[in-house]
Amino acid sequence: MRIDVLTIFPNMFDAVLGESIVKRAKEKRVVEINIIDLRLFSKDKHKKVDDKPFGGGPGMVMNAEPFFEAVNYIRKKTKDRRLKTRTILLTPKGKKFDQALALKLSKYEHMALLCGHYEGIDERVAEGLADDEISIGDFILTGGELPAMVIIDSVVRLLPGALGDENSSKDESFVVGAVSDRPLLEYPHYTRPADYNGMKVPDVLLSGDHEKIKEWRKKEALKVTKKKRPDLLVKTSLTETKGFRK
Ligand SMILES: C[S@@+](CC[C@H](N)C(=O)[O-])C[C@H]1O[C@@H](n2cnc3c(N)ncnc32)[C@H](O)[C@@H]1O
Q1: Positive or negative torsion for Cα 134, 137, 140, 146
Q2: CATH architecture of 172-245
Q3: Which end of the chain has fewer CB atoms at under 10 Å, N or C?
Q4: How far apart are CA 73 and CA 80, in angstroms?
């Protein structure tokens, strides 16, 4: 997969994309990530990319032109490869990001992520460029950089070859996996020691009986979901989530 990010703060990405799974995925060429400084596409002599809002009001609004210029540049760069692509605007007004959406995006060959700042971006960018508008939750961040990193991290770990063990992403909270046939929260994990200050690991996990362990995990996943996220039991449509796995 190729990912292009448009931002006025390219340095923000160094730490997150330079560590752990995303770093390894880049090294293994599972993903190519280009962080592009939006100011390079400003025609203003001071490289300004924002202006006062029409109609008045507080703050500044990011200009449409640098985004259009930059996305055209990316489209030219990727045209020869004819990649299956999505241009995604990060905005609190977008569709709420979740694991099903991460899985859907992981099937694309290219994503361009557009990060806003200040009061937001001129609406013509949403109208004229974005295939998707995505929010990472009902709260306001300073800019689209953290949401872009959240999306990159969750999508990259789903790409074939990104994780040390492919099964890690097939049996997790919110996915239909080997243990659970619907998207629940994951069952509890334990590791050594079997007895820590009197807090013991459930006997079944030490039994070596894989069928019994699977049954226990299924029950625990249901139990923890009922307790912590009962909304998942009502909300999730099995067919819809399975569709994303095809
Ligand atoms: C301060 S916010 C603008 C908020 C905007 N005035 C509003 O009320 O909806 C600046 C930028 O941060 C990004 N952003 C902030 N919160 C976000 C969220 N929850 N999800 C995705 N992007 C977000 C967007 O790119 C947005 O353009």
Answers
A1: negative
A2: Orthogonal Bundle (1.10)
A3: C
A4: 13
Atom 15 of ligand 1, nearest CA residue: 141
Residue 193: cis peptide before it, omega within 30 degrees of 0: yes
Enumerate the domain spans of the chain. 2-156, 172-245
Query: Which atom from ligand 1 is nearest to the alpha carbon of 59?
Result: 6
CA gyration radius for the chain? 22
Q: Topology of domain 2-156, per CATH? A: Alpha/beta knot (3.40.1280)
**Residue 243, ligand 1, Cβ within 6 A:** no
Q: What angle do CA 80, 86, 89 make, to 5 degrees?
A: 130
Which three-class secondary structure state does DSSP give residue 246?
Answer: coil
Q: pLDDT tens-digit profile of 11-49?
A: 999 999 999 999 999 999 999 999 999 999 999 999 999
